[in-house]
């Protein structure tokens, strides 16, 4: 296939890890007879330095006219004092909004050979392999009315509203059931239907959408129980379907169970162009030293192949190359343990390419 990929490296370690992912994609394209065109764009603090804004119109146009966006990270101490609309992080919100991305996908998988490096109980974390799906554009983050207002008797009142429409729930449920079909075919929908009306509707619509997916198993769980089950027996979960706020919290909880932040990819999808990026930030403390772990970004490129281009075989090849490289003992500093071979960012990328 032919595909145009917008490459937005951004700031900090983004500038080091994104080229490693591009390197891997180029080899995959060559081996499997695809043509990927890579179009670079400025984003975040880097764009502020060059043209004065975190998300230049040119970058947005590049993203919109691509088939997918590969993003590194944005932000850093250099741009911290700027006013809200000029912050590098605004670029991410702008991209999500402008591309119409309403589903955030965050796989949390424990690579077995890294289990020993974890400080968590091995019998609990072993076998973790789940996908947290978070609704991104609705719920209490955007519901109206909201605000802070003075109370007549003194003091103030702060309030937000949790709102979901049938259509908003339907489309995120479809993403979850479709994703489950690529995996172990099990969806667990998270809500608080014993207390919240928005959750009552959520449960009803998800159950309704499920009728179109008789091959996928659906269960419902209250969010409080889910938080508990995640630390008690996380391997029971395959796809976790969450609203905006529950997904925000549970995706971080799930990520921490698996250890290094440098290993975990993410995808934001829903519209024509999906956005693929590591879950970690620009890591200014280690930027420019060739020590950042590129695996989260390389795994994000694999998600791009699977979710944006339906190239599941090619995505699996990248996954397997990552596993093989880890099995051979290659480790960046963040996941290093005794007896393993310490390598830099570029060397880790090279090793993964060799093991493709
Ligand atoms: P943001 O606000 O952009 O999410 P943050 O301050 O929350 O940023 P990160 O930039 O993700 O956090 O960094 C958190 C910690 O994890 C830092 O100590 C950083 O060095 C480390 N870290 C992040 N990404 C990587 C990576 N790819 N490889 C190794 N260490 C990483
Ligand atoms: Mg952060």
Automatic annotation (TrEMBL):
Its cofactor is Mg(2+); Mn(2+). NAD(+) binds at residues 76-89, 281-293. Mg(2+) binds at residues 224, 248, 252. Pfam families: Iso_dh. GO terms for molecular function: 3-isopropylmalate dehydrogenase activity; magnesium ion binding; NAD binding. SUPFAM superfamilies: Isocitrate/Isopropylmalate dehydrogenase-like (SSF53659). Pathway: Amino-acid biosynthesis; L-leucine biosynthesis; L-leucine from 3-methyl-2-oxobutanoate: step 3/4. Residues 4-352 form the Isopropylmalate dehydrogenase-like domain. The keyword Amino-acid biosynthesis applies. Its main location: cytoplasm. The keyword Cytoplasm applies. It comes from the Bacteria. It catalyses: (2R,3S)-3-isopropylmalate + NAD(+) = 4-methyl-2-oxopentanoate + CO2 + NADH. The record marks 141, 192 as: Important for catalysis. It is an enzyme of class 1 (oxidoreductase). Signal peptide: none annotated. Catalyzes the oxidation of 3-carboxy-2-hydroxy-4-methylpentanoate (3-isopropylmalate) to 3-carboxy-4-methyl-2-oxopentanoate. The product decarboxylates to 4-methyl-2 oxopentanoate. Homodimer. Belongs to the isocitrate and isopropylmalate dehydrogenases family. LeuB type 1 subfamily. This is 3-isopropylmalate dehydrogenase. It comes from Nitrospira defluvii.
């Amino acid at each position: 296939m032919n595909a145009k990929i917008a490459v937005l490296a951004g700031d900090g370690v983004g500038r080091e890890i994104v080229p490693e992912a591009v390197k891997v994609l180029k080899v995959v394209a060559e081996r499997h007879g695809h043509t990927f065109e890579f179009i670079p764009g400025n984003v975040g603090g880097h764009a502020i330095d060059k043209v004065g804004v975190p998300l230049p119109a040119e970058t947005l146009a590049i993203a919109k006219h691509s088939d997918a966006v590969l993003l590194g990270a944005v932000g850093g101490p250099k741009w911290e004092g700027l006013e809200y609309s000029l912050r590098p992080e605004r670029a991410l919100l702008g991209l999500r909004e402008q591309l119409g991305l309403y589903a955030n996908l965050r796989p949390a998988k424990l690579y077995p050979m890294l289990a020993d490096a974890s400080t968590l109980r091995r019998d609990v974390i072993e076998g973790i392999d789940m996908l947290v799906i978070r609704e991104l554009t609705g719920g209490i983050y955007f519901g109206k009315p909201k605000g802070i207002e003075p109370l007549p008797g003194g003091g103030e009142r702060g309030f937000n509203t949790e709102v979901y429409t049938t259509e908003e729930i339907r489309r995120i449920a479809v993403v979850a059931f479709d994703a489950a079909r690529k995996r172990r075919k099990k969806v667990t929908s998270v809500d608080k239907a014993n207390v919240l009306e928005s959750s009552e509707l959520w449960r009803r619509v998800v159950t309704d959408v499920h009728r179109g997916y008789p091959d996928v198993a659906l269960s419902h769980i209250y969010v409080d129980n889910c938080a508990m089950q995640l630390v008690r027996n996380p391997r029971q979960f395959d796809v976790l379907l969450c609203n905006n706020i529950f997904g925000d919290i549970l995706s971080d909880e799930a990520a921490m169970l698996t250890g290094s932040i440098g290993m975990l990819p993410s995808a934001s999808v829903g519209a024509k162009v999906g956005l693929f990026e590591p879950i970690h930030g620009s890591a200014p403390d280690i930027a420019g030293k060739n020590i950042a772990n590129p695996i989260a970004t390389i795994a994000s490129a694999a998600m791009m192949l699977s979710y944006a281009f339906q190239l599941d075989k090619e995505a699996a090849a990248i996954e397997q190359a990552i596993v093989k490289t880890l099995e051979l003992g290659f480790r960046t500093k963040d996941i290093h343990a005794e007896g393993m071979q310490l390598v830099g960012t570029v060397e880790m990328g090279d090793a993964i390419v060799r093991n493709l």
